[in-house]
Design a protein that fits this description.
Number of strands of chain B: 7
CATH class of the largest domain in chain B: Alpha Beta
Number of helices of chain B: 10
Strand order of the largest sheet of chain B: 4-3-5-6-7
CATH superfamily of the largest domain in chain B: NADH:ubiquinone oxidoreductase-like, 20kDa subunit
CATH topology of the largest domain in chain B: Rossmann fold
Shape of chain A: globular
Largest sheet of chain B: 5 strands, parallel
Structural class of chain A: alpha+beta
Structural class of chain B: alpha/beta
Largest sheet of chain A: 8 strands, mixed
Shape of chain B: globular
Distance between the termini of chain B: 59 Å
Oligomer: heterodimer
Order of helices and strands of chain A: EHEEEEEHHEEEHEHHHHEEHHH
CATH architecture of the largest domain in chain B: 3-Layer(aba) Sandwich
Number of domains of chain A: 2
Number of domains of chain B: 2
Strand content of chain A: 15-25%
Order of helices and strands of chain B: EEEHHEEHEHHEHHHHH
Largest interface: A-B, 42 and 43 residues
Number of strands of chain A: 12
């Protein structure tokens, strides 16, 4: 690992160098009813629009890797014959300017399923491989439990990771691309003072976590509590609306639809992200629904994230970003659900 | 205009379709005419024999009947029975036909004579309670919305022609609203029925910062008690909730239950 430091002004210069590509970063999207700012990952043309000190975003940056809806292939139909066109929908390299550790960890988890598996998906892989990622250190919010999920720091899956040291950035360089880009701005070797200040930030971050999830033996406990009444209680609240999956940086389940154009000359195969909480998620041909009840669907959501994925990959499919709990109108959130399954409340 | 259509070399028959209106604003039919970019494609798919807003002729030989509006008069019941006899496929077109629509708001008043006097004065109009057309005849297909979403109608008609199953989304509007990455209207201080209303509109109103009024009726797993709790938690009265749930008639059964509980 190579460490560098550079003055804050230099980041503007780096932005300019990178902005020949499409740059996506955190910006303020609006205010909520209590006048608190709401942040979102948007395409950024102007460095001043970036809010690198953002606490968290309402939605993850998922749509830039795994859009809610994506055309998988299109067809031209001619008398009795047809031609298929496949496009992975990557038009230019993208720069992710300012992702938190949880969201980069989320991409690393998606990579395991969507790239490093038996059936990689080229639509995701092509976007992921044409991405330059700059991470940025953050301070935990009340809903953050990334530390519990081991996702508060990130080891790989990015090009460069920045930590704000007041008047300068401490940069962790992971890729040769990042190293070469940094040659275009004025940087310095990290000194012992920089190391000390970096450790100070790390200590401050550690002291700020207020929400925790006990994951000790969680796979076993979930097995034991498969029939527990608490699932029914959470299920009664659940709206089966799919919001948790749509704001989740790691949810990747989807459905595929084929539509024929009205002129009968063309057709499209479209992929749509779906949610395991939607009523027909487990409905099969013939109409049988394996999970007709809300509490069963909700339970399987937790089993996939915190049990099934752990068995397959030795890590949870949850990064502890807390977005699902923040967005859920029924106030269903991971820390409380897991605590209730462990009978801690 | 082609006499026959082909899809992948297979000949398809152009169905003869007719449009009818009962008590309604005829706005759903207007949605179809409005879509000028695709109107010619639509007209090449079907043979329209009757469409008051778009043509003078009025034929009686049709296979598919699109009926807009709710039933509010005795003669409409006879008209519906007549249409049903001729049509192979009976489509309830829009929220009025599906649930009674905005018209059924008058059903809330116990004194219907008073309603008549308020609206029509001394002019005599033979009007009864507003009902969905399924109260009178068997309906084969519902197309929801106030108004209907033209893209959805076009897809449904294409699928009908190709013999594909017609599936409406079973999930609520929230799913589409989140896919549009909107800020939740409850976070902006607005009431919204998105969590319980059937999707398919691409979250038309919430995406334009207007809370959902439930025009497409309940989603397949509409959690009304939780919806009531959310409204209360955000400071909205039961009356506000009921106003929205009652607006289009799709939630009639749920409303009755809430009123019973008091």
């Amino acid at each position: 690992m190579i460490f560098k430091v550079f003055a804050k002004d230099e980041l503007t210069r780096l932005f300019e160098v990178l902005s020949v590509n499409r740059v996506v970063g955190p910006v303020q999207k609006g205010l909520d009813r209590k006048n608190r700012p709401i942040y979102s990952f948007e395409v950024v043309d102007n460095f001043d629009d970036l809010r690198l000190d953002y606490p968290s975003t309402l939605y993850p940056a998922k749509r830039y890797f795994l859009p809610f809806e994506e055309t998988l292939s299109s067809f031209t139909l001619e008398s009795g014959s047809w031609e298929k066109h496949v496009d992975y929908n990557v038009y230019q390299p993208q720069v992710m300017f300012g992702m938190h550790a949880c969201d980069i960890n989320a991409l690393n988890k998606l990579d395991k399923v969507l790239i490093n598996s038996v059936h990689p998906t080229p639509y995701y892989a092509s976007k992921r491989r044409n991405m330059f990622i700059i991470g940025i250190e953050c301070m935990p919010q009340p809903h953050c439990f990334c530390r519990s999920m081991g996702a508060d720091t990130v080891q790989h899956g990015f090009d460069m990771f920045l930590t704000d040291l007041g008047d300068r950035y401490f940069a962790e360089i992971l890729s040769s691309t990042a190293y070469n880009y940094l040659l275009k701005i004025k940087t310095m070797e990290a000194s012992e003072t920089d190391h000390q200040e970096y450790r100070q930030v790390v200590r401050e971050k550690s002291s700020k976590f207020t929400t925790h999830v006990d994951t000790t033996d969680l796979t076993k406990i979930l097995d034991m509590e498969f029939q527990a009444d608490v699932w029914k209680q959470w299920g009664d609240k659940c709206l089966s609306c799919g919001t948790c999956a749509n704001v989740c940086p790691t949810c990747y389940c989807y459905g595929v639809q084929e539509t024929v154009d009205m002129n009968l000359q063309a057709a499209t195969k479209t992929k749509q992200l779906y949610s395991c909480n939607l009523i027909d998620f487990a409905e099969v041909a013939g109409g049988h629904n394996f999970r007709p009840e809300a509490h069963i669907r909700l339970k399987y959501r937790y089993y996939h994230k915190h049990r099934g994925f752990v068995e397959a990959f030795e890590e949870s499919l949850c990064v502890g970003c807390g977005r699902c709990g923040e967005s859920c109108l029924a106030n269903i959130n991971v820390p409380e659900v897991i605590a209730s399954v462990r009978y801690e409340e | 205009m082609p006499a026959n259509l082909t899809y992948l070399g297979v000949e398809l028959a152009r169905p003869r379709v007719a449009f009818f209106e009962l008590s309604s604003c005829e706005g759903c039919q207007l949605q179809l005419l409005n879509n000028e970019a695709t109107l010619l494609d639509f007209l090449s798919l079907v043979e329209v024999v009757r469409f008051r807003e778009g043509m003078t002729e009025a034929g009686d030989d049709y296979a598919v009947a699109f009926v807009e509006g709710s039933v509010t008069r005795a003669d409409q019941e006879l008209q519906l029975a007549e249409i049903r006899k001729k049509a192979k496929v009976m489509v309830a077109f829009g929220s009025c036909a599906c649930f009674g629509g905005v018209n059924q708001l008058k059903n809330r008043f116990s004194d219907q004579e008073w309603v008549k006097r308020e609206v029509y004065g001394d002019f005599h109009v033979d009007t009864q309670l507003a009902r969905p057309i399924s109260d009178v005849v068997k309906v084969d297909l519902m197309i929801y919305g106030c108004p209907v979403k033209k893209e959805e109608v076009e897809r449904i008609v294409t699928d009908l022609l190709l013999g594909k199953a017609i599936n409406h989304p079973k999930y609520p509007v929230c799913m589409e609203c989140k896919a549009n990455e909107n800020i939740c209207l409850f976070d902006l201080g607005e009431p919204c029925l998105g969590p319980v209303t059937r999707a398919g509109c691409d979250a038309w109103c919430p995406s334009n910062r207007m809370g959902c009024w439930g025009c497409r009726g309940p989603a397949d797993a509409a959690n009304i008690p939780q919806m009531a709790r959310i409204m209360a938690e955000h400071g909205f009265s039961t009356e506000t909730l009921l106003d929205r749930l009652e607006c289009f008639g799709g939630f009639a059964a749920h409303v009755e239950e809430i009123r019973k509980k008091g």
